[in-house]
Amino acid sequence: MFKHFVWLVAFAAVPASATDTSSLSAYLASFSGESRDCKSIPHDVVLAAKNAGYGCIPKTLSADDAASDLYGWLKGPASANPKYEKMGLEDVMWDGVDALWPCHRGK
Question: Which residues make Cβ contacts (< 8 Å) with residue 13, sequence separation at least 6?
Answer without folding.
Answer: 44
